[in-house]
Specification:
Helix content is about 40%, strand content about 10%. It has about 130 residues and is mainly α. The strands form 2 sheets. Strands 1-4 form a two-stranded parallel ribbon. A two-stranded antiparallel ribbon has the order 2-3. A hairpin with a 2-residue loop joins strand 2 (about 25) and strand 3 (about 30). It starts with 13 loop residues before the first strand and ends in a 14-residue tail after the last helix.
């Protein structure tokens, strides 16, 4: 199969029915690979960009914390895993009391909310 360079600007068409992407059809002398199958679970390129941008914001902000503060904060809110942990779990994992774990998480949150760091992070992330 040969596709001409000018044919690469084809707009994606979302199909109402399932289409075998392996089927080739001729339409007006052009090679058509078939419609793109719509996936309502897939992210758009814009959504992918925003997810990546948000992750970079979080990394920049966490970089302003000590490694220990960043680790406790990350674990509490599930930043890297998507699974937030209870403070009791974090305390047990690190061999510290509940109060110590809570204080480290609170200190990290306070640092991130400080005006000198405000430009690093979207305030919605700390809400």
């Amino acid at each position: 199969m040969h596709i001409m360079a000018g044919e690469l600007d084809t707009v994606y068409v979302y199909a109402e029915e399932v289409v075998d992407a392996g089927q080739t059809q001729l339409a007006g002398g052009r090679v058509v690979l078939g419609d793109v199958i719509y996936d309502d679970q897939a992210r758009t390129p814009e959504e992918e960009y925003l997810v990546k941008e948000r992750a970079e914001e979080i990394d920049r902000a966490l970089g302003r914390l000590t490694p220990e503060e960043a680790e406790f904060f990350d674990e509490r809110f599930g930043i890297s895993t998507g699974e937030p942990q209870l403070i009791t779990q974090i305390a047990a994992n690190h061999g510290v009391s509940y109060q110590v774990a809570q204080a480290r998480i609170n200190k990290a949150g306070s640092k991130l909310r400080h005006p000198s760091n405000f430009h690093l992070l979207n305030p919605d992330l700390l809400a």
